[in-house]
């Protein structure tokens, strides 16, 4: 079974969303807006600062199927910028966990 991090390479993420969504997500990571709450083989929970709000984003594995949700309400058919930021934050050295 594939681990959730296997989905978070640049090519795969760029295929999931329009380039402007990817760029906004990358900008959020660069700004330090992402905090990893939980990261396991099958789940990634994060909080992402979005202006004056903080949204919760979740990636999870359901068997071999990748699923996602975000409290911003924009992640219906494809991931939003907060989900992309969360995925990018898993790359080494990108984001501290909630305890760090």
Give descriptors for this structure.
single chain; 100 residues; alpha+beta; four-stranded antiparallel β-sheet; 3 helices; 4 strands
How would you characterize this protein structure?
This protein has 100 residues and is α+β, with helices and mostly antiparallel strands. The chain has one domain (4-88). The chain contains three helices and four strands, in the order ααββββα. It has a four-stranded antiparallel β-sheet with strand order 1-2-3-4, covered by helices on one side. α2 (19-30) crosses α3. It starts with 9 loop residues before the first helix and ends in a 12-residue tail after the last helix. 28% of the residues are buried.
Topology:
Elements: H1 10-16, H2 19-30, E1 34-39, E2 43-50, E3 53-62, E4 65-70, H3 81-88
Kindly provide the radius of gyration, computed on alpha-carbon positions and rounded to a whole number of angstroms.
12 Å
Mean pLDDT: 89
**How is the main sheet built?**
4 strands, antiparallel
Number of beta-strand segments? 4
**SSE pattern, N- to C-terminal:** HHEEEEH
Contiguous runs where pLDDT drops below 50 for at least 5 residues: none
Count of DSSP H/I helices: 3
């Amino acid at each position: 079974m594939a681990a959730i991090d296997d989905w978070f390479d640049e090519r795969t993420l760029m295929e999931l969303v329009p380039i402007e969504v990817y760029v906004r997500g990358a900008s959020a990571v660069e700004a330090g807006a992402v905090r990893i709450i939980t990261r396991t083989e099958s789940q990634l929970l994060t909080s992402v600062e979005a202006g004056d709000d903080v949204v919760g984003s979740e990636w999870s594995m359901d068997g071999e199927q990748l699923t996602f949700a975000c409290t911003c309400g924009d992640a219906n058919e494809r991931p939003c910028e907060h989900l992309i930021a969360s995925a990018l934050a898993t790359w080494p050295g990108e984001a501290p966990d909630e305890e760090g």
